[in-house]
Amino acid sequence: MSAQSISLGWLGTGRMGAAMARRLVDAGEQVSVWNRTRSKTEPLLAKGATVVERIADLGRCQIVFVTVSTPADLEQVVTGEHGLLAGSSKPATIVDCSTVSIETSAKVRAAATAAGVAFLAAPVSGNPHVVAEGGACIVASGPIESFRQVKPYLDEIAKVAVHAGEQEQSRLVKLCHNLYLGMMVQALVEVTSLVEKGGTDRAAFLEFLKGTVLASDWVRKRTPDLVKQDWTPKFTTEGLRKDFDLGLGLARSLEVPMPVGSATYQLIQSAIGIGLREEDFLSLYEQQARGAALEQGTGA
């Protein structure tokens, strides 16, 4: 438990939220949780968290973390009629770990500030498995003093927690991270399909690649899934498309050309069109393999 342990709230216990909240519970923190589907809070309850009935009940916590799916969800749970800011008790700080647009983040920040509540935008790099292993990275933006107060808890969740600015800079940082991730995976499946078409076993190529300087921890961990064509979702193709929509929109507004990102976006869209919407985004390989006229299976 951190030296400055205080009451913490967690709003949203889907796959990511549950994994992050569990890190705090396992560290000995006092955590109250709420989720629209109550059954998703039960594993945390079993670990020692407290489940509350209403979002407003989290207002009694000093710090409330939020993990929701969409910008509309964030507005609803923070500024909506029954949101965090609607109750008689309000947290001192809201830490939003969702991936949302800069516009939504700024709107929610303004509402929180008007209510006397500090707001940190703190999106996360890492899927639930990475979070559970302590390998996540968090980039935060907002008042520096609020970041310093929250950092002990961010450090319990993630291996890296950095402050990127006073406003919405962390949103752009996270979107750029996901743009790069999508472009990297598309490049990976392209070269993999090329060596396969030339007669090299997919597993052999990936085993070679992950031993080179071009490999990363992500490539090493996900290679078995690509070899087996296991598209069990850790991050869906639809989720990746959402982030490309947001990231490329910002690139247009900032007048930054993104030729590789734009081409990758169209390939993501095509993958959704052939039925890979809810699959892990590694399934971009399947679309690439079809285009290369490779036989589908678990090998070359």
Q: Can you describe what's shown?
A:
The chain is an alpha/beta fold and 300 residues long. The protein folds into two domains: 8-167, 3-Layer(aba) Sandwich (Rossmann fold); 172-291, Orthogonal Bundle (N-(1-d-carboxylethyl)-l-norvaline Dehydrogenase, domain 2), CATH 1.10.1040. Helix content is 50%, strand content 12%. The strands form two sheets. Strands 3-2-1-4-5-6 form a six-stranded parallel beta sheet, with helices on both faces. Strand 2 (31-34), helix 2 (42-47) and strand 3 form a beta-alpha-beta unit. Helix 3 packs parallel to helix 4 (102-114) and helix 7 (169-197) packs across helix 11. It is globular, with a radius of gyration of 20 Å. The termini are far apart.
Query: Strands of the biggest beta sheet: in what spatial order?
Result: 3-2-1-4-5-6
* Approximate strand percentage: 5-15%
Shape call: globular
Supply the number of helical segments: 12
CATH class of the largest domain: Alpha Beta
Overall mean pLDDT stands at: 94
What's the CATH architecture name of the largest domain?
3-Layer(aba) Sandwich
Secondary-structure element string: EHEHEEHEHEEHEHEHHHHHH
Major β-sheet profile: 6 strands, parallel
Attribute tags:
9 strands, N-(1-d-carboxylethyl)-l-norvaline Dehydrogenase, domain 2, six-stranded parallel beta sheet, alpha/beta, 300 residues, three-stranded mixed beta sheet, Rossmann fold, single chain
